[in-house]
Predict the 3D structure of the following.
Amino acid sequence: MEGTMAISPPRAWAEIDLDALRHNFRFAQAQSGGQEVMAVVKANAYGHGVREVIKALEPLQPSFYGVANVFEAREVRALLPEARIYLLGVANPSEYEELVAHDYTPCASSMAELHTFGELAARYQKTLRIHLAIDTGMGRGGFLPDTAELEEALAYQHSHLEIEGIGSHLPVADEDPTFTEQQFQRFASISKPDLRYRHLANSAGLLHYADYGLNLVRPGLMLYGVSPLPEYQAQLKPVMRLCSRISLIRDIPAGHGISYGRTFITQRDSRIATIGIGYADGYHRSLSGRGAQVSLRGVTAPVIGRVTMDQIMVDVTDVPECYAGDIVELFGTEISVSTLAQQAGTIPWELFTGIAPRVQRIVQTTDRA
């Protein structure tokens, strides 16, 4: 029709499978042995889209939503006014008042924080529910075990504060079982009978370690379909599938350089596909020359030459039945994000959270509960 213009599909997009997300949450519930579950949705739900993720999870009734700061807390509260929102890390002093005013749940690491939170809660005439962070080995914040300050904090009373829980964090749950077991034991020895919540287990801790009388778990990565412990991967479903399209296919003679630096020279007459994704989209430049592959038409093909800002090149000489416009998977159901992260010299968390805003998230679901 005259005066109208077609809207092009995205060059690169991330398919978000909410059915897989709910499967993974239910698996976390089952694996927890009856503990309550906090859904960790910080960093835009690990790059998956916090709005869609929390709406999908709400019917499954997470006890808390875990966020990193008050900006993220605001996003969750706007969508779920009655949700319990937990700040997983140390709060910045500039965040204290908003945190109290809007009933976000902080974890305190010092007596000074407890005093300030109490004063602010009194000013707002409310009772603030708060947790104590215990440093059992992470070294990032929290009260040290077996110290007078921790004993003082556990005994602290203020008419406008309710110390309802204690929590700690596992730095090597996927690497060092001996140290991790020691952390669980150290944490279990901290006594305060009237605590509502005791929590330590992240995804690796939930999957692999025995219950030490705790009653709340904090899965993050596993909700999004990646196990930090390979032996559990088959029981999870990938939530994100990162895709792009072939923009162009060219016949290139032997001896021709590919991409910046000419780090790859064709050794044979080749068919080279240009794919519309690059490091500005979150496909790491460090994947250059590291054996990365893509999946198209049910087979894999190697990424060659350096990853550029907006495009990558793939050798499709051995994939004769492919054409410009074909969909290419960078990671997801055929290419493991864990494998790609290893090739990039990083971790799946960074790949997920590094997917750029210009990569459209396309939500897929059939299960509404």
Notes: The CA atoms of residues 2 and 8 lie 17 Å apart.
